Input
Amino acid sequence: MEQKFCQSCGMPLTQEILGTNADGSKNEEYCIYCYKDGKFLQDCTMDEMIEHCAQFVDEVNKGLPQPITREEYIGQMKMYFPHLKRWRKELAINEATPENPALMGVKELIATMADTLPVTFISSVDEEGFPCTKAMLSPRVREGIKVFYFTTNTFSLRVAHYKTNPKASIYFCDVEGFKGMMLRGTMEVLTDAASKEMIWREGDTEYYPGGVTDPNYCVLKFTATDGRFYSDYFPRSFIIE
Output
C-alpha cells in the first residue's frame, strides 16, 4: 500500500495515529498530534512547525542508514513542507490581496521573466503519457501571472497533444541570473478571430502567409494553477488563486 504522510508535520501515517474529525471519525490526512476533533492543535506558521519537528531529528536518524544533522533536517523540511496540504494554502499568491511575505517578489519575478526572456519552454503530455517539451517564443500577452498567450501552428504536434490532454506547464529560465520559474496548469487551443487578432503582430506573415486568418495560425492560452521557482539557491512551491 502507498505510504501516506501527515499533511501538517510530514509524519508517516498509520491507522493508530490518524487524527479525528469533528464527528469523531478518523481523518486520513493528518496525524493525531496535529489534528483532533476537526481542529489543528497548533496555531503556528510553517517555519514554526519545522522548528518543532526539528527537535525529533534523533528519532528520525534511527531509521536512516546515515545520520543527518539538525540543520540538514531543517533544510530538507523547508523543501518538503511547501508541498503538504496545510502549508500549500499558506503559500498562495492571490492577485486580489497583498502578497504573502514568504513569496515576496515572486509575482514581479514571473512577470519580468515572461516579459524579457526571449524563449519560454512549454510542455505537453503525449499519447503515451510522456512529457514533451519545446522552446517557444515568449508569450505575446499575459494577464497578471495567471494567464499567458502564445502563438503557434494549428497543425503542430503540440496542438494535437493539448486537444487530447490540456495538462501543461511552462518554464522561464534566466541562465545568467541562475533563476528558474515553472508554472503548471492547462492549455487551451484558440482559433476564434478575436483571440488571433489580439496577439497578431506585424511581421507574422513570415510564419503565416495567409495573415491573421491563416488556418495554420492559432493561439495557445495557458492558465496557471500553481508553480515552483528557484532563486538565490532556494526553491519554493506556491499556488495561484
